[in-house]
Structure to design on (182 residues):
């Protein structure tokens, strides 16, 4: 399949969000509270490129919860159609976009032009968010420690809350996507 076929196969964002069971409330919170800067000339530049976006995602993913609403707000303003594909049901495409050549990290945003050619790829995290995740992981005990699973679960819950409530992360995601598309 080519990227146009993958785009056509994807579901619209409303259908994806409606079907969410785990991170819907937090995703909608970010969506309801994030707005790209109104005076950003980049929005018009992006609109003129006539791009479309394919999003590889899964409901359980905290990074997707953070990044997708930022993308959706940007896409609305720049008139970029977006389609969602569930990673685990679309491994053929996912495996073409591995992080560091080995990891099925999500979300991945694939921007395609009118001919279905890849114009840009973004994901799974903005640099500032990656630094935060790396710092959080460094505080975990060794994987062999008896309390590792408990501490990891606590860390992921705290990270999810931070993604939901820290508007500076939202801005970092926006700027990162913007820099990728320039």
């Amino acid at each position: 399949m080519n990227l146009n076929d993958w785009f056509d196969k994807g579901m619209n964002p409303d259908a994806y969000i409606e079907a969410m069971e785990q991170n819907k409330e937090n995703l909608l919170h970010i969506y309801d509270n994030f707005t790209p800067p109104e005076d950003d000339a980049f929005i018009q530049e992006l609109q003129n490129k006539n791009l479309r976006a394919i999003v590889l995602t899964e409901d359980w993913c905290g990074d997707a919860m953070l990044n997708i609403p930022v993308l959706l707000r940007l896409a609305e303003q720049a008139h970029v159609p977006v389609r969602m594909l569930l990673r685990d049901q679309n491994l053929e495409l996912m495996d073409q976009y591995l992080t560091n050549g080995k990891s099925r990290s999500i979300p991945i945003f694939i921007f395609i032009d009118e001919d279905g050619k890849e114009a840009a790829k973004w994901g799974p995290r903005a640099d500032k968010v990656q630094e935060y995740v790396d710092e959080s992981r460094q505080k975990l005990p060794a994987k062999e420690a008896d309390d590792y699973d408990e501490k990891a679960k606590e860390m992921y819950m705290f990270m999810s809350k931070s993604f939901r409530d820290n508007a500076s992360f939202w801005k970092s995601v926006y700027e990162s996507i913007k820099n990728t598309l320039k």
